[in-house]
Amino acid sequence: MSSSRPTIRDVARQAGVSHQTVSRVINGSEDVLPETRAHVEAAIEQMGYRPSAIARSMARGQTHTLACISPNLTDYTFASVIEGAETEARQHGYFLLSSSAADPEAFRALVDELVGHSRVDGLIVINPYADKRYEYIPRNFPLVFVGARSHDEGINSVSLDDEKVAYEATRHLLSMGHTQIALVTGPMEEDCSQDRAEGYARALQEAGLEVDPTMIIEGDWSATSGQDALLSFAEQGRVPSAIFAQNDRMAMGVMHAARDMGIDVPTQLAVIGVDDMPLASYFDPPLTTMRQDMPRIGQEATRMLLDILQKKNNEPRQLKLPAQLVVRQSTLDKGGD
Amino acid sequence: MSSSRPTIRDVARQAGVSHQTVSRVINGSEDVLPETRAHVEAAIEQMGYRPSAIARSMARGQTHTLACISPNLTDYTFASVIEGAETEARQHGYFLLSSSAADPEAFRALVDELVGHSRVDGLIVINPYADKRYEYIPRNFPLVFVGARSHDEGINSVSLDDEKVAYEATRHLLSMGHTQIALVTGPMEEDCSQDRAEGYARALQEAGLEVDPTMIIEGDWSATSGQDALLSFAEQGRVPSAIFAQNDRMAMGVMHAARDMGIDVPTQLAVIGVDDMPLASYFDPPLTTMRQDMPRIGQEATRMLLDILQKKNNEPRQLKLPAQLVVRQSTLDKGGD
DNA sequence: ATGAAAGCGCTAACAA
DNA sequence: TTGTTAGCGCTTTCAT
Question: What strand order describes the sheet that includes B216-218?
């Protein structure tokens, strides 16, 4: 008679068994007579019964939901990590709640809702070190950081191998014959900016070149900051022959400024970025970059979290993923032609 | 003694009241003596008690969670809608579960999990008409479509006023003195592509121009398809003086192809897009486009859904949002100079 | 192989 | 104003 959704008991009544037997059937228990099972399944089918996820969570004490907190949801790199994480989570029967927290206060509130109120079983945090937000996360809660300082061995993290990626990017410019290689970094308070700066320095040093601090400008990941960086070099009267921008957006800003200033890329200025963002191959000229596999990072973070939840692996791990050099037209062999 | 989270009863015991009184306090009921309230709040504070969202959902029969299903999470337009929706949802104490469903089968499975298993109270679906996926959604479930055919008056939807936006874009090109205006559409099975084609046609007709079918090419929203479109026109030997691409990515493809073919934008070919995607102002030349406010669309969709849940408004509504012309350098006055 | 009883942590309805 | 009694729809014992 009830117009609302049928429960396990309704099904039981219909099938002439106890509600517990129905529970066994929907949970795939072995201990059910094939015939009984058939009856129950018929009743389920007939009544259109679907178990309530909430009731299950209640009884089992777990939500089968993970959360991912990101500075925002629209940045391509973040969105890609989230998509990778979501796909992996769903594959294992979990859901992913993705939220954005622009500032530490929003982050704190979010963590309280999510973790404090037991809304999720585990947490993935993207860019936790951009500010001090990581301090708000309760200890002992299943947690994986993405893009975090991989130096800290007490926590689980998945990130690009920033030092190595920067090293390889710089090596690429060196191999093209460049010796005046400038660097445009992300915010230096972020660990990955620091790590990438270190990789850059190591490559130069190994090549017997000095690291010139005036050849390093701090940006903020935006195209505008890349633009500004090139302007700064020009004002100093010292335009390098090559620039390594720590992400593609800033690289694009550099190229944009170069165009405005009548500097030809790549003949007068070589540019390499990091990410391989969409349309990087459509830039003018198409951008050489270190491609990182963001969905993979999200996927690995989710796997790590799931492992923790299933107590498979309790050792904190720091996973560093590689990037792949994609040579396009924004870098060119200086020796050649 | 128990090492696990304190419950409402633990707090009650500590405060020397019944668990119901604790419930009243955490729910902000008026009917509690200030003194009693103080005791309870002290106990809550002291024990670090936080209500369980799951138990609440169980008892109240609602999850305070909404879901948003999108073809993917990385496309800038989708991600922006989701971010707008998530922000609005959180502002009202709701959470947003965003999932991607690439194909109808994945969509069906997702709806079953989300709606069938009562995981969420309401649903936002982005681009439901890309295929027949909308058929899988149960009737009477709180639902809002985004980017849907607004012609259907039986459903709730929020979308761009596609016909009008296309009309205005075309008008802009006309006002620049163009008479040979080509159109690159999205997939014609999507309603917004059709609507935008209609707006284009109306503008031409009002200007006394004929709609030439050979000047209309169907793309798939990708930059590549924009590129191909211009190549097709060239092969036909009929390169128009202006192109209206139904999104920025295709517009960028058109400009890229033009560069390769030695066609100068904007002097030989004017290009206008739709979206105002990030970096549109960094293209070469910077792209003229119809800017749409995607976060706003997500926000309005969420409001609509929340209204439905609170039974404030049961009349199906179709909300159409405007776009704003942003003139940059990819279109230029033909008469001018 | 199946069933009965208890409980997950909260809210709702009623009583006092 | 406060407390008592029942659930919400499931799972988890423990019997049978």
Answer: B216-218, B181-185, B242-245, B270-275, B288-291, B324-326
